[in-house]
Amino acid sequence: MRHYLLLALAFIAFSACNNEVATTQDLPIRTPTVADQLIAADSIPISLIKDNKAQYSIEILTTTKTDSGEYKLITKYGHITDSMTTRLPYLEQELKVALRRDEDQPFNYIIGFYMEEDSFKIFHDYISVSASQADISDLATQTELKFKYLKAYYLK
C-alpha cells in the first residue's frame, strides 16, 4: 500500500512540474572559491595619534560562498578590529570587487564593483566603511567603525 501511495505522490509531483528543464548550458558558471583569499586591501596611518604605527585598514576576503557573491570585510583602526560578511549583488554577469578611498572623508572607504556590461570601467558604490573617534589622543576612546549600505542593485 505504501508503494502505491509513494508512486501516486511522485506522479502528482512530477506532473505538477513545469516541462522546462534547465541544462548546464543555461546555468551561470560559478567557480568555487577558497576562503580567506585577499581580494583588495588598503591602509592609511592614523597620523592624528602619537603612536605612528597606528593604522586604519580594510581588507576584502573571499569566503567559501564567494561564487554566489559573499565576501568578508575586516576593518582595523589601531588595535580595534571589526569584521562582517556581506553579499554583493548576484547579477548574471561578472563583477570585479574593488575598494577606493572616499575623497571627502579622511577615514572612509567605499567598497563597490565594476561590471562586465560597463567594460569594467565604471565604479559602482555599494558599502561605505568608516571610522570615527571622539578623542583623537587615545585610540580606545569612543572609536566607532561603521558599515553602511549605499545603494541597492537589482536585475531588470
Indicate the proportion of strand residues. Answer: 35-45%
Give Rg in angstroms.
Answer: 23 Å
Number of strands: 8
Dominant shape: globular
N→C terminal distance? 49 Å
Compressed to H and E, one letter per element, the order equals HEEEEEEEE
Structural key phrases:
156 residues; four-stranded antiparallel sheet; globular
Report on the architecture of this protein.
- With 156 residues, the chain is mainly β.
- A hairpin with a 7-residue loop joins strand 2 (55-62) and strand 3 (70-77).
- The strands form 2 sheets. The protein has a 4-stranded antiparallel sheet, with no helix packed on it. It has a 4-stranded antiparallel sheet with strand order 5-6-7-8, with no helix packed on it.
- The chain is globular.
- The protein has one helix spanning 2-16, and strands spanning 38-45, 55-62, 70-77, 80-87, 95-101, 108-115, 123-133, 143-149.
Task: Set out the fold topology.
Layout: H1 2-16, E1 38-45, E2 55-62, E3 70-77, E4 80-87, E5 95-101, E6 108-115, E7 123-133, E8 143-149
Antiparallel strand pairs: 1-2, 2-3, 3-4, 5-6, 6-7, 7-8
